[in-house]
Design a protein that fits this description.
With about 160 residues, the protein is an alpha+beta fold. The protein has one domain. It is built from seven helices and five strands, in the order αααβαββααββα. A five-stranded antiparallel beta sheet has the order 1-2-3-5-4, with helices on both faces. A hairpin with a 2-residue loop joins strand 4 and strand 5. About 25% of the residues are buried.
């Protein structure tokens, strides 16, 4: 009986180490999907019809992100003054950039919510149902009635 107990500790240590290694290896790896492939997938869905593609200067103005620092940026925005619909997809050069991009997205979202509080109830509803995803070397942000569908398409094409 005592011989069997001697092997329990090493067995448990091996199991714990194996579990920790598998958790480490199961982390989200970087996507090989290019930003143009991601744009094509999102465009094919037809869910961006209500938005217009914006340039890198607009991204810099709205989010404070310099496009040259990333592998690619895709930004679509609603055309009206009261239109809060937006889609931002950023492919990172380095995963360490994710925190800065996420903070820029959250700052934008908080600012929009503050701007529309007390008079833009439809806009507030859309903003509150926005989708933010940070997966591997990609960051995703969508405000739209179709935000969850766009997020699903994004996830499927990573």
């Amino acid at each position: 009986m005592e011989r069997n107990l001697i092997w329990i500790k090493p067995f448990l240590l091996v199991c714990i180490a194996g579990f920790m290694i598998s958790m480490f290896l199961a982390g989200q790896s970087d996507s090989k999907t290019g930003i143009s492939q991601m744009e094509a997938a999102l465009m094919d869905s037809g869910d961006l019809d209500e938005m217009q593609k914006s340039d890198n200067l607009t991204v810099k103005k709205i989010f404070g992100l310099n496009a040259a620092e990333y592998d690619g940026i895709l930004f679509y925005k609603g055309s009206g003054i009261m239109d809060v619909c937006e889609l931002l997809v950023v492919k990172l050069k380095d995963n360490d950039q994710a925190d800065d991009v996420e903070q820029a997205i959250r700052d934008r979202l908080d600012g929009q919510i503050q701007n529309f509080t007390n008079y833009g109830t439809d806009q507030i509803d859309l903003l509150n149902s926005s989708e933010i995803k940070i997966v591997g070397n990609y960051c995703f942000y969508a405000v739209s009635q179709k935000a969850s569908r766009l997020a699903k398409i994004f996830s499927e094409h990573l």
